[in-house]
Amino acid sequence: MRYGTSGFRDHHSKIESISIKIGIAVAILSINESLQFGIMITASHNHFEDNGVKIMDDKGNMITLDNEKYIERIVNDTNITCDVDAIHHRCKIHIGYDSRMSSPKICELIVQGIQSIHTNFPFEIHEYVTTPQLHYIFSDKSQEMTYLKYIKRASKLINMNCILDCANGIGSKIMMLVGNPYIHLINTEWTEPTKLNMLCSSDYVCTHRVFPRLEGLQNMYVQDNLCASFDGDADRIVFYYRNSEGIRILNGDYIAALVFTYLSKQLSECVQEITIGFIYTGYTNNACLEYVKSLCFPRNVTVSFICTATGVKHLHKEAIKYDVGVYFEQNGHGNVLFRNILVDELHIIPQLFHPVIGDGVMDLFATLYILQELNWNVQDWSNIYTEYPSKLGKCSILDKDIFKSSDNELELIEPQYIQEYITYLCMESIDKCRAFVRASGTENVVRLYVESHDQDTTNLVHQEITQFIEDHINVIPHFINDGAFIVRPIRYTDATQSYYNLLGQLSHIDPNLMDYERTKTFIQNLGINSLHKHQIYVIEDINLGKIVASGTIFVEEKLIRNYGKVGHIEDIVVDSKYRGFGLGKLMIDHLTNLGTKFGCYKCILDCDDINVGFYEKCGYIRKGSQMGKYSIM
Ligand code: ACO
After folding, report:
1. Looking at residue 128, what DSSP letter applies?
2. I want to staple 88 with a disulfide (CB 3.0 to 4.6 A). Which of 34, 98, 99, 588 is the partner?
3. pLDDT average, residue stretch 445-471
């Protein structure tokens, strides 16, 4: 099992099957590093039958990549041996769990694992806590006050009404303990685990763009009433309200923009040198970034914009580099971190955020406090910018591992030709389009995000990139005569001396007269401007990385046959060393199928008599005569 961005997460039975090993792994880690660790048992927004395990270090932060790999290795290893003589006094494991039915059992199994390393290994169980609650015990603040005191201090400042959907999760428990009279709690049945996230929660609202279900009380969602939803373990929050069009969601981008609005106001007279970082991901809407960039800050306050990979651990890692680090993912996961500097103008704001990680509860209070201070209602907040139309979708692929992204995931490093295609499409678009593709961490899918100033352009570009990926990536090699071959569209990087030599086996071509840039433009224009109309395919010997055959299809659109289409097959050539293995037929079959897919009622070609037998073997029949008048022979 893989330790993904949210730790180990799966059906509870699978998590149970690895829980003892998780206990063993974290105990070994704690011994090796002589430090405390935390283990949170939750599956956040997922179905109530799922569960998960997330591990944190002695500062309440996500563990390092090396430690993730270490734990993953132990969990997937069948024979683990560990000789322990003594346990350092600093070693201890805190285990927390939320309201899922399977959590106590998983906790028990983890404890078994810990005790198998040493019967006296110190551990402490924290029953029914939110994820941020467990993280809090590792922060310095926990020496001064309990988590409940910390959040109550913030709650006391709030006098703005809000309907809060607690997702029937553990966030209900903590919010009931806080008991803020202005916050009207709904979906609070955390002791009924089968209700967890059912027709409610931040994820449900964002995915379906609907209000959480509220039996008999649906009319509570009165126009312009501010509402919010936690996820199952209350570590994130999104806001929304009913407007004339239905639901208007104010996600993590809007929370970040609101924080920056407040910072800009508070720091307008500040003379101290302060660094502020806005840490965001590729999914952050450009309208949000443009808004934040338009805000005024004095010269001594430097605001930096950093795009990182998705996953809060990446954002958090960057945020700690600034005096004030603001980071929110669109899904409402995020926090504002304050370095220990005294800035009077920031007033009590640092006390309104969780000292370590994103916390739905604290983010709720911080947001409401800022709205109060700005004297804004929900409409004022939602009017700060208008999001550009975007589309996020996924595309199934055979092997996700062939996709490699840049650190901030905005560009593909491999396959290079897919990035070239995306860049080209975005440059061609008049609507300031941006798009990126990233492979999922676990499934064989890639996620494609497109954003532009216009919904139609966004949809069209999304559709074209999806089609391109499907046509180019999902190809299965043909194993012929001890070799492995794929048929794929030509890339400009294929246009080498060797490719020109191959074409030379078909007709005249002087490689010395071929210009790299011109060929590159020629190939880049294939199948893009004239999408589906002119395509060159090649056959690659994947063991040698060598192009061994080439063929062209040109789709002609006609008026006859009521806008009928005809596929013209051209320039078929197989390297002489590879002839007679069936590669010629493979190419013809591929191009003919493509013609059919493009809606051609027939495919036709011209050839010398010597090749008639070959084309007959490919299912073509002699029709009429071939004519030609050459200007140059
Ligand atoms: N006459 C009769 N049958 C032939 C011929 C031929 N010239 N060439 C191949 N075949 C048969 C094969 O024996 C095989 O039959 P089988 O299925 O019974 O075994 C079948 O056709 C498929 O042959 P492949 O092995 O797939 O053909 P190959 O990979 O050798 O490619 C091609 C054939 C493309 C004609 C190759 O010989 C070549 O590149 N020639 C030089 C360039 C050329 O003339 N291209 C055609 C230009 S026309 C145009 O572009 C539309």
Report:
1. S
2. 34
3. 90
